[in-house]
């Protein structure tokens, strides 16, 4: 079973996310909005497109908890339900239940060092 298919996002804490977004827009040409920047691409050997999200969060965000790290990686996955069953069997810490939104399904886990990881199965 193919597990991770790519990086869906890079999320990190910042003292002033809006100011940081503006800096990246001005100096590096990021097309930023309130959520950061989205980088679009085509899947290898396919006509399917995908995206990777780059987002600065307020430094006091609780979204990365229980991890104490200043970052969180979002990984794209092919079949989140099957993967969660496998991870549970392997004793991986699952932090919540699968949630579904217009843009896909999500769940959060912890790695062996306590880093919070977001798994995302995009729609379509």
From TrEMBL:
SUPFAM superfamilies according to UniProt: Glyoxalase/Bleomycin resistance protein/Dihydroxybiphenyl dioxygenase
Domain spans labelled VOC: 6-122
Signal peptide: none
Lineage summary: Bacteria, Pseudomonadati, Bacteroidota, Flavobacteriia, Flavobacteriales
Family matches, as Gene3D superfamilies: 2,3-Dihydroxybiphenyl 1,2-Dioxygenase, domain 1
InterPro entries listed in its UniProt record: Anthracycline_SecMetBiosynth, Glyas_Bleomycin-R_OHBP_Dase, Glyas_Fos-R_dOase_dom, VOC_core
A Pfam family recorded for this sequence: Glyoxalase
Identification of the protein by name: VOC family protein
């Amino acid at each position: 079973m193919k597990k991770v298919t790519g990086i869906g996002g890079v999320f990190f804490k910042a003292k002033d996310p809006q100011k940081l977004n503006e800096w990246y827009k001005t100096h590096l040409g990021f097309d930023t909005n309130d959520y950061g920047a989205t980088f679009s691409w085509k899947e290898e050997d396919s006509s399917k497109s995908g995206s990777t999200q780059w987002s600065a969060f307020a430094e006091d965000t609780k979204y990365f908890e229980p991890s104490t790290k200043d970052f969180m990686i979002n990984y794209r996955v092919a079949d989140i339900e099957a993967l969660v069953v496998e991870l549970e069997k392997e004793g991986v810490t699952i932090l919540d239940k699968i949630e579904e939104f217009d843009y896909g399904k999500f769940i959060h886990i912890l790695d062996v060092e306590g880093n919070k990881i977001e798994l995302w199965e995009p729609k379509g």
